[in-house]
Amino acid sequence: MLGSMMNYQLTLTSIMKHGKQINPHKEVVSITSDHDEHRCTLSDIFERSAQVANLLKAHDIKKGDRVATLAWNDFRHMELYYGIGCSGAVCHTINPRLHPDQVNFIVNDASDQVIFLDVMFIDLVKAVEAELTSVKKFIVLTSDASVVEGFGEKWSTYEADIGSHSTEFNWPELDENDPCQLCYTSGTTGNPKGVQYSHRALVLHTMAAIAPDAFSIGKNDCVLPVVPMFHVNAWGIPYMAAMTGCKLVLAGSKVADPKVLSRLIQDEGVTLAAGVPTVWNLLAQHLQENKISLTCLKKLVVGGTAMPPHLFRYFQDEQDMAIIHAWGMTEMSPLGTINHIQAKEMLEWDDEAQFEQKLKQGVPVYGIELKLINDDGQDVAWDGKASGNLLVRGPWVVDQYFNRPDVKNENGWFDTGDISIIDEHGYMKITDRSKDVIKSGGEWISSVDIENAMMSHPEVSLAAVIGVVHPKWDERPLLIIERHGDKELSYAEVTSHLTGKIAKWWMPDAIEYVDQIPMTATGKMHKLKLRETFTDYSF
Ligand code: ADP
Fold first, then answer.
1. Cβ pair 266, 106 in contact under 8 A
2. pLDDT at residue 307 in the model
3. Are 120 and 213 members of one domain?
4. Is 501 annotated as catalytic?
5. What is the per-residue pLDDT for 342?
6. C-alpha–C-alpha distance, residues 396 and 279, integer Å
């Protein structure tokens, strides 16, 4: 016999309906190519989502069809999130920082039927247009109809297109396991792989992510997702807004402009901002140079890569913010673990011990299970010392990549490709990506630990460590530092800084300076490129 509760479907439509009914007047502030400052409400957004749904119907878009976006964070992109997903189609968010060949690959892999794009991505799409054979419409997200003049009948503009449609739509009853969003991994090795999220996964993820010991978002918050809406659904924040009724601030293409971010935070009263450390680094420099204190901003969510310790200290100690350090993946919708120092006994630890704990990636949120195994598949103890391959499972973890039946999870667990340590309190610490790990004399060296120790030096803002072939030890660490002005630290200065912070045998064998450490399309250090650059390096 089954339990006797209602079989209520967990869909994005249920989030939209809640937002419409309970939080209709909540504000969404955006910067777009045609508005320096655009203000609307959730209710306006959902009315226009209905117009989007009517437009898609007019173009014969059916349930499950993919409809792509190439767009920054703004109100129109949010209308598309709901309009596409709640009408039964799948909103495929494309990362515009990808190489045009990769954009070409994923549009074809997904068989996108329509692409909605920002004005600044017209050239990117035009460069590969002839090869995008599945696409029947290119709709530019603007009110300026002149941008598509002479482009032919496949091209049109958003405001003109949706303007003729009704703000009412008969939203279909969807199954919670139906797909609604699609996002590809950045594909630093091989072609990108698509993760197709179900309604159920995203609803449960949203509920878990807003909780007090996770992002802790409520009605009175004002949230700035600096993380782009083309990257894992902006970590789910557009759904959190409708579910909680928080105010949203969307910075358009200015998400990496610290001056704009600082102004928006102060003018709009942002209480929580979420993004990768690269952006927080730029913001910190701007705040320091201009002696700005962001008093309204209480919570800084950081994820994507580890937060460098000096940056953590700056925002915590000098800006008085709570740093919410999160770890996740495209394959995990993305939230996996989150770090708040929660337990009372930890708050009594000395400052150094607390700080070390805070730098970890944290404990799993309810819904995510972690497992550590060694190369033989045996469980690794959660003792804060032993490292292993990190596996995960849960209702918002990918079961199967889009169009890739050849890649399978084993025994119901997803292999994250991360190497980590878990302590007796359940706090997980990433020590490396499995493909970046350095094996010296049969033992693993954590490149992440060395990088963090190096980036705590005031003269170093970005440092990467890679393994280089060594005749005796198989591999030894090479430290690569991004040049900052003229000063270059000597090897002796570097080793003296690292002494005591890392194991003696982890000490990098050499240092190289570069003008720029290459970054991936999702803002992580591109170790593969670095390894290619230093492939013939000898110590
Ligand atoms: P990509 O498309 O670049 O693969 P993902 O966001 O899916 O983007 O990347 C996930 C990976 O990013 C994780 O497996 C992990 O290695 C790294 N990562 C994410 N968050 C953190 C964090 N807080 N600290 C360290 N590494 C992180």
1. no
2. 87
3. yes
4. no
5. 65
6. 27
How far are the Cα atoms of 57, 343, 433 from residue 370, in angstroms, in the given order? 42, 20, 16
Give me ligand 1 centre to Cα 318, in Å: 27
Domain tally, the chain: 3
Dihedrals phi, psi of 46, to nearest 5 degrees: -70, -30
My answer on whether 421 and 522 are in the same domain is no
* Catalytic annotation present for 439: yes
Q: Are residues 344 and 425 in the same domain?
A: yes
Q: Which of 433, 455, 478 is the last residue of a domain?
A: 433
Question: Does the beta carbon of 157 sit less than 6 angstroms from any atom of ligand 1?
Answer: no
Asked whether residue 219 falls in the same domain as residue 85, the answer is: yes
Query: Residue 458 has what pLDDT?
Result: 84
Q: How high is the pLDDT of residue 295?
A: 97
328 Cα to the center of ligand 1, angstroms: 6
326, two tokens:
């999160």
Is 362 in the same domain as 414? yes
Q: Which of 11, 69, 185, 431 is catalytic?
A: 185
Query: Which parts of the chain have pLDDT scores under 70?
Result: 187-189, 342-343
For residue 408, the cross-strand partners are 400
- The pTM for the full model equals 0.92
Give the pLDDT confidence score for residue 188 in this predicted structure.
62
- 53 and 193 share a domain? yes
- Has 444 been annotated as catalytic? yes
Quote the ligand 1 centre to 304 CA distance (angstroms).
4
> Residue 483: what pLDDT?
86
Q: Which of 31, 509, 98 is nearest to 254 (CA)?
A: 31
Question: Quick one: 491 and 381 in the same domain?
Answer: no
Q: Which domain holds residue 35?
A: 12-163+175-257
